[in-house]
Specification:
mainly beta; three-stranded antiparallel beta sheet; OB fold (Dihydrolipoamide Acetyltransferase, E2P); 8 strands; five-stranded antiparallel beta sheet
């Protein structure tokens, strides 16, 4: 049996922006799907891995001033709905950017960052966040 932390590290979409592309209609999905909602039954076995570029535009955002416990010390922080260049949407935290700089239409790119730590001696979880594209 595989250890739980190792199992989570081996999920490609967890640490990379890897979605699925329908070979029939070309639509791209993230998180990955096994069936295209447009083509339905025709897409069974027709979904292929697709590595997203990780660049996109802020469509909407919010500044969170009272975070959940595992975000303590990081307030305020910015969460955004981002439309990736491939047309799919993701929700992510925007880092290394002052809340006054963030705006709808701002170009961002994905970056690999620490998400949280599970207790003092627990596992550290990593994933993608977004930074302002220069």
């Amino acid at each position: 049996m595989m250890a739980v932390p190792r199992y989570w590290r081996e999920i490609p979409a967890r640490y990379n922006l890897i979605g699925k592309r329908c070979k029939i209609c070309g639509n791209i999905y993230f998180p990955p799907r096994s069936i295209c909602p447009v083509c339905r039954r025709k897409s069974v076995g027709q979904m292929e891995d697709y590595k997203l570029k990780g660049t996109g535009v802020v469509e909407s955002y919010t500044v969170i001033h009272v975070p959940p416990p595992h975000f303590e010390g990081e307030e305020p922080y910015i969460m955004a709905l981002i439309k990736l260049d491939e047309g799919t949407y993701v929700t992510g935290q925007i880092v290394e950017c002052d809340e006054k700089e963030v705006h709808i239409g701002m170009r961002v790119r994905a970056t690999f960052r620490k998400i949280m730590e599970d207790g003092e001696k627990g596992a550290i979880y990593y994933g993608y966040k977004f930074v302002k594209e220069e």
